[in-house]
Amino acid sequence: MKQQFLLICFFLCCEFQLVAQNSNKYTFFSMPAPGDTAVVFAAGIVSDELGNRDMAIAPDANEFFYTIQYRGGQFSTIMQVQNINGKWGKPEVALFSGMYNDLEPAYSPDGTRVYFASNRPLPGSKSKDYNIWYVKKQNGQWVEPTPLQNTVNTTADEFYPAVTKSGNLYFTRAVKDKGEDIVVCRWLNGSYEEAVSLPDAINTTGDEFNAFVDADEQYIIYSGYKRKGAYGVGDLYISKKNEKGEWGESINLGNSINAIGLTYCPYVSPDKKYFFFTSSRNSTIKVPFEQPQNIKQLKEKTTHHLNGWDNIYWMSADKLFK
């Protein structure tokens, strides 16, 4: 009887630990979960003075990638952060990055690939336009960057990949005489078809870019540039599919998300509980200063994460689905 009691206690303890682990799945650096107001993500750790953007969380939530983009694009490097034995490590340059301008990482829904944009030259080419690449994990490391086929990668720039469960690939492409469009290459019979621009419910004659697409392709969140009635120079919009499977009219996400300047790089966590985006809002550097600054004070301001460069923000995703 005593052995049975101890065995039951052991299994209950294991179950409680599993529940605790699952409940803490999206706990980052001991930060409290955000509410309906966007807050800086991992201030001083991820969001620092260098300028940070993008977010991609592994389906098991034990790893994520983001991008350091220094001084608005002087260089772009993909960073990796891993959770080992329940503890988040420090951000490190991803093994496949650090030489060229790499940015905008995105996991495949099954977590077996990480896609990203890069200006590294394609095999046999000296061209330095931006194309979409991917890496696979080998022996626990993401290695061997491989470019996608030429129906995806062209002589134009391709950015911000988003892969769905169907295999369809959505991304941003520079379009002749139009600026940038959000396009899709459908996955059919083991290869990508030619890219097609999304309909007028999303794309306009202006610039649309950096789209997060639901893995089930039921909604899309993207940036629209200098649109009428916008809160900033570039706002985030959402479009949802209707009963016919058509993309519905795009709706501005409002001033609780959009602000003065550019709001971009939308991302929804795999559990659909948290919404991430990038913004340079809330800079603490306001000139003229209230009083003359000495060199120490100036250095403190410019090395603070609210120095006017981009930061990653996160909040509850509830508002997106109301």
What's the arrangement of secondary structure elements?
Elements: H1 2-23, E1 39-40, E2 52-57, E3 63-70, E4 75-84, E5 87-88, E6 92-93, E7 102-107, E8 113-118, E9 131-138, E10 141-147, E11 158-163, E12 169-175, E13 179-185, E14 187-188, E15 191-192, E16 196-197, E17 208-213, E18 219-225, E19 234-240, E20 251-252, E21 264-268, E22 274-279, H2 295-302, E23 311-316
Antiparallel strand pairs: 1-23, 2-3, 3-4, 4-5, 4-6, 7-8, 8-9, 9-10, 11-12, 12-13, 13-16, 14-15, 17-18, 18-19, 19-20, 21-22, 22-23
Give start-end ranges of low-pLDDT stretches.
5-23
Determine the number of helices (DSSP H or I, runs of at least 4 residues). 2
- Tell me the total number of β-strands: 23
**CATH hierarchy: architecture:** 6 Propeller
Computed over alpha carbons, the radius of gyration is 21 Å
CATH top level is: Mainly Beta
Shape: globular
One letter per element, helices H and strands E, the order comes to HEEEEEEEEEEEEEEEEEEEEEEHE
**Corresponding CATH superfamily:** TolB, C-terminal domain
Major sheet size, sense and barrel closure: 5 strands, antiparallel
Strand content: 35-45%
Could you report the average pLDDT, rounded to the nearest whole number? 91
Distance between the termini: 53 Å
The helix/strand class is: mainly beta
Number of domains: 1
Predict the CATH topology.
Answer: Neuraminidase
| Proportion in helices | under 10%
Describe the structure.
This protein has a single domain, classed as TolB, C-terminal domain (Neuraminidase, 6 Propeller), CATH 2.120.10.30. The protein is mainly β. The protein is 9% helix and 38% strand. The termini are far apart.
